[in-house]
Amino acid sequence: MSEVTPEIVAEHGLSRDEYKLILEIMGREPNLLELGIFSVMWSEHCSYKSSKKWLKTLPTEGPQVIYGPGENAGVVDIGEGYAAIFKMESHNHPSFIEPYQGAATGVGGILRDVFTMGARPIANVNALRFGEPSHPKTRHLLSGVVAGVGGYGNCVGVPTVAGEVEFDSSYNGNILVNAMTVGLARADRIFTAQASGVGNPVVYVGSKTGRDGIHGATMASAEFDDASEEKRPTVQVGDPFTEKLLIEACLELMQTDAIVAIQDMGAAGLTSSSFEMASSGDMGVELELDKVPQREVGMTPYEMMLSESQERMLIILKPGKEDLARSIMEKWDLDFAVIGTLTDSKRMVLKFHGDVVGDLPIKPLAHHSPEYDRPWVETPLRDEVEAGSVDQPADTTAALKTMIGHPNLSSRRWVWEQYDHMVMGDTIGRPGGDAGVVRVHGTERALAVTSDCTPRYCEATPFRGGAQAVAETYRNLTAVGAKPLAVTDNLNFANPERPEIMGQLVGCIKGMGEACKVLDYPVVSGNVSLYNETNGKGIKPTPVIGGLGLIEDSSRLATVAFGGEGQDLVLIGDTKGHLGVSRYLDIIEGRTDGNAPDVDLAAERRNGDFVRAQIEKGSVVSCHDLSDGGLALAVADMAVASAMGAEIKRPEACDTALTAWLFGEDQARYLVAVDKADTLLAAAQEAGVPAAVVGKTGGNSLTLEGGSSVSIADLRAAHESWMPDYMAG
Question: Which terminus of the chain has a smaller tally of CB atoms within 10 A, N or C?
């Protein structure tokens, strides 16, 4: 085995101080295999060494939480004996290098995180961010990623029901591919990765191990440079058909009493799965690497331990259950091998051809990795943009038409029509609404799921941006009638060794934590992706929030489309006309100044509770939350969804400047359509919720105050044509 030199240490992404710590832990020089194991386990991707100080501040508990962070995925109780299991993870770096396989294996990995805990996956969500449309790589990356997400999810047979796509120049050199899966399990049949039982067999199942993905976790923990294309071998290759077999085989095995612990082989492959299981149970492990199923000739222990080949699981079985497990795996045409045993040594002993080739202490690698308190500086507040300081456009409706056809506000139909969102037959809220909705099979209950983040807010004012990302998912779920239960997160940031970037991370986490606390909306799982930058140019801070909610009676589902002609449009929430870093300023004025909107969390909760109660009573069936583009964009979305027009006017008592009133992005607001507003307004007044009639539905055109009429057909064409035209270009 090669001698470990300072150059080899550096190639493994380890600092001098980290190598000194390795020497202290080992009491000797590590060999190359042992160094590689330290490298992946202590990578940013696996150890969260720059972020865990701050992640510990997030609220993670609540009466609904069964398992919070620390397991493969978060688990929440949804009643009637069931639990929802969900998580979001990134596959950013691999997707930039090889978009199809990078995105596909991102979907495969998050599916395994969920079904390894005993859940049948029932819904996928994806949050995608690409460079500016004019960048030479953007079309290629968008096409490849969407094909990869659809190709894997469609083949596995799990519907993709929600997501987001955004374009910004900050992602020119680092796209973001964040994948989320939700699964359903019996609350009394949750499986964990906590190994136990000296002498219990350690079993490998799934696909054979190859050389793909070696050092994928380390690559995902470093910034890019001009040579990043050469990292293509570190991108894994997925096989969704094998994943489908693995899901069914694992769920069948879980119906028996054979499993002690189970863990998928994700980032860092066999290394992370074996170390994490042993560490969770305070056990030792002895592995015989000769027995690992291999698809390539002459693989070394280093390659086997660090490979990130897909569709593989590691299982601790009860003694004597090997033949039962083998028969199930072979029935599903999957590899099965007993590759080791649990010990009480609290060490990882690796053997190859009978020789010990690695011997490492488990706890220091799995849970005692370095924890950095990196220097950070707070992002300074900018000057506010006053509501009355922005000129009114000559035609407000024409401005709206321009905005709705912009790359960042246009329809995503071209994307989601490539995803099978109806497979399994339980999807009742399709992509394009505020949240995807999937029925709890065989019942009238449903789970709602969404993802959201506004990176321009997080860049301008990180605390507000972090809080707003949480609050918007809360509104997305509320707008379909779901009670928000918990969130998962995917924190995408640039290089944390730069104090201003670390300041963005700290500010966003503080904002997220405050919002989750006030809204009783805990964080139960998540992922951190740092070093998203190329040649020193970083992405906008992008802490994506995935939200999960429960609808007790899915017949009371609210949708974006108007319910009929002549309905009153009621704006719920207070409008001050916030235009800082708004879509209006960006698209119409070409400006990016100002701060993110303030997030009044008490108002978010009060207004959300009110809207949800009205939907549950059946008083409201048409609802849309207000976000990008404010009231004008919300009514346009509703009009296009229902192929019906509307007219919008300020209430007589309103003195907010028209442009700010129409396009301002104040938070905690919803637009609802009701047959008669009187009852709703009275209920809102009693609840202390601001509410006002702002328009009426009807006809085949949309008219905003201060603007001409535009036909819904023209509005739809403007909204839906940009992306197909761009991709056809």
Answer: C
